[in-house]
Design a protein that fits this description.
Blueprint lengths: L16 E3 L2 H12 L5 H9 L8 E8 L5 H14 L4 E5 L26 H12 L4 E8 L4 E9 L5 E5 L10 E3 L17 E3 L7 E9 L2 H16 L3 H20 L8 E4 L5 H16 L3 E3 L19 H4 L5 E3 L5
Helix pairs in contact: 1-7, 2-7, 5-6
Organism: Edhazardia aedis (strain USNM 41457)
InterPro entries: P-loop_NTPase, PRK/URK
GO molecular function: ATP binding; kinase activity
């Protein structure tokens, strides 16, 4: 059995966390208060108005590929750890099913909801909710397309749980994917009854759902660079996969309006100004002061690729109680 607090940080570039001056805090809080519907009000409402150390809080991040979910999740994780708040990070990318080498995987769609091991995902979440002593977690290699695990680890019994993935809302939504009707090798087939009632119940969780939206052109540029640099893929293959699988799935399922959303940020983690507003509202709730990051971390490596004119898709698909665009303040 291996003891862990959620993630290995050895391969991650850790952002420096900075505490804002009183004046900077006031300016940031004023921006939050002046939004059409207070971001702080939404955060407080989702989390129960007042932080209680004996409660369990979930920050659920869903969004298009290359919108910055992983970067934001890791930054938040380190922020909570630095401020002595017990936190666990659940990355759904680690729960892909292994490819069957005996089958033709040419048209296998990793962006199909059925590509994830939802049974394993839901078990981890339930065990966190129920304060089980151990958790069964998995790893996944994007190089070999093989899943390893489950591995049993000690449950850190966290106060804050961060869940990130393209379909992370599916865990808690009233309606969830009707998985038996999905086929990773035939994503274009017509699916009847795509969604069914969610049988999972998590009454002890207080949940905040953030959607990160990105335009197709921005997502493609970032995705190509990420796949080549971090996953050892050929650019041409990345383009084909994006156009054939990634973006159709994004429009059809990731941005599906059936998923309830509390806050949405256009252009995702590349929208630095509004990301600071979000992080500021979250930290104000948990630690009573506004804290932000000094840099963009891993996702910042692809900031150049994101500098493409906005097509408006991101705003169109950001249906939520609060929408944060990257217009000049």
């Amino acid at each position: 059995m291996t003891e862990t607090k959620g993630i290995s940080t050895s391969s991650r570039k850790k952002n420096k966390i900075i505490e804002l001056t009183t004046m900077e805090q006031k300016m940031l809080n004023d921006k939050i208060k002046n939004s059409d519907k207070s971001l702080q009000e939404i955060v407080d409402h989702c989390f129960g108005m007042q932080f209680e150390n004996n409660k369990k809080y979930v920050i659920c991040l869903q969004g298009a590929s290359s919108s910055g979910k992983s970067t934001l999740a890791h930054n938040l994780y380190h922020l909570f750890q630095e401020n002595k708040i017990n936190c666990f990070l659940l990355e759904l990318d680690k729960y892909y099913k292994s490819l069957d080498p005996q089958k033709d995987n040419t048209n296998y769609d990793f962006d199909n909801p059925a590509s994830l091991d939802w049974k394993a995902i839901n078990k981890v979440v339930k065990d966190l909710h129920d304060d089980q002593n151990t958790l069964s977690v998995q790893e996944y290699s994007f190089i070999t397309a093989i899943s390893s695990g489950p591995v049993t680890i000690l449950n850190p019994k966290p106060t804050v749980i961060i869940i990130e993935g393209i379909y992370s809302f599916n865990i808690f939504n009233k309606k969830v994917f009707n998985l038996p009707n999905f086929d990773c090798r035939n994503s274009i087939k017509k699916i009847e009854n795509e969604f069914v009632d969610n049988s999972n119940k998590f009454p002890n969780f207080r949940i905040l759902r953030l959607k990160l939206c990105i335009c197709q052109s921005k997502g493609l540029k970032v995705r190509i660079s990420r796949d080549v640099l971090l996953r050892g893929r050929v650019a041409e293959n990345s383009i084909v996969q994006f156009n054939k699988f990634v973006w159709p799935a994004t429009k059809k399922w990731v941005y599906n309006k059936i998923f309830e959303t509390d806050v949405a940020i256009a252009h995702g983690n590349f929208n630095e100004k509004k990301m600071k507003l979000f992080v500021g509202a979250v930290t104000k709730f948990f630690i009573g002061k506004t804290v932000c990051f000094s840099g963009m971390g891993l996702q910042g490596d692809f900031k150049k690729e994101s500098r493409i004119k906005c097509s408006g898709e991101c705003v169109k698909n950001c249906n939520s109680s609060v929408l944060l665009t990257d217009d000049d303040d």
